[in-house]
């Protein structure tokens, strides 16, 4: 196998692929890893992959493996746990940043978790960007029931919604008037 510049970054790309595409429940087998690397014009043989994984482990990049019918490899060590990432993404969503900034930050955060965990976290993120309901039609209807006098009365309001989506108010004073 000739040594070219793609081979120089093979270990970095290998670890990046394992970080993005694997977790405890989703491991990649040898053929999948070779296929992913070949998409990037990086050649890897079936026999050198275990040596590359061993080299990564030697230098502190923890890549775990198991053998079933094939050899499978995955990365467990993440910068954030799922609960931490969900909490941080909820904080970002609740912040006063604009929608583009929020999306960008959450995307960067979920990229640290890998594809599979990022999808599971996306389901748990609270959406604070929902349109807020306006009470503006409520106030004119409410004002017509309030007397213009300055006397202190306590009012009890009952809001009735009809099927025609119109709001009716029934205002009563403490005396029942």
What does this structure look like?
With 177 residues, this protein is α+β, with helices and mostly antiparallel strands. The protein has three domains: 5-74, Winged helix-like DNA-binding domain superfamily/Winged helix DNA-binding domain (Arc Repressor Mutant, subunit A, Orthogonal Bundle), CATH 1.10.10; 82-124; 138-173, no CATH class. 44% of the residues lie in helices and 14% in strands. The strands form two sheets. It has a three-stranded antiparallel sheet. Strands 4-5 form a two-stranded antiparallel sheet. A hairpin with a 3-residue loop joins strand 2 and strand 3. The longest helix has 13 residues, at 82-94. The chain is elongated, with a radius of gyration of 30 Å.
Provide a short characterization of the protein structure.
The protein is of the alpha+beta class and 177 residues long. The protein contains 8 helices and 5 strands. It is elongated.
Poorly predicted segments: none
Q: Report the C-alpha radius of gyration, rounded.
A: 30 Å
Distance between the termini: 95 Å
Biggest β-sheet strands, sense, barrel: 3 strands, antiparallel
Report the order of strands and helices.
HHEHHEEHHHHEE
Total domain modules: 3
Which features characterize this protein?
177 residues; alpha+beta; Arc Repressor Mutant, subunit A; 3-stranded antiparallel β-sheet; elongated
Describe how the helices and strands are arranged.
Elements: H1 5-8, H2 10-21, E1 28-29, H3 30-39, H4 49-58, E2 64-67, E3 71-74, H5 82-94, H6 99-111, H7 115-124, H8 138-143, E4 155-161, E5 167-173
Antiparallel strand pairs: 1-3, 2-3, 4-5
């Amino acid at each position: 196998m000739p040594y070219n510049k793609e081979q120089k970054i093979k270990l970095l790309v290998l670890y990046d692929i394992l970080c993005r595409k694997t977790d405890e429940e989703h491991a990649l087998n040898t053929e999948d890893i070779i296929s992913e690397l070949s998409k990037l014009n990086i050649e890897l043989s079936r026999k050198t992959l275990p040596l590359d994984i061993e080299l990564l482990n030697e230098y502190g990049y923890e890549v775990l493996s198991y053998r079933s019918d094939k050899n499978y490899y995955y990365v467990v060590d993440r910068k954030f746990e799922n609960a931490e990432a969900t909490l941080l993404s909820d904080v970002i969503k609740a912040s006063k940043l604009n929608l583009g900034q929020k999306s960008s930050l959450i995307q960067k955060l979920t990229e640290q978790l890998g594809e599979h965990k990022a999808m599971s976290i996306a389901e748990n993120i609270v959406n604070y960007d929902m349109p807020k309901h306006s009470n503006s039609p409520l106030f004119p209807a409410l004002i017509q029931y309030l007397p213009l006098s300055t006397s202190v009365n306590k009012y009890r309001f009952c809001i009735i919604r009809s099927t025609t989506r119109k709001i009716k108010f029934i205002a009563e004073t403490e005396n029942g008037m």
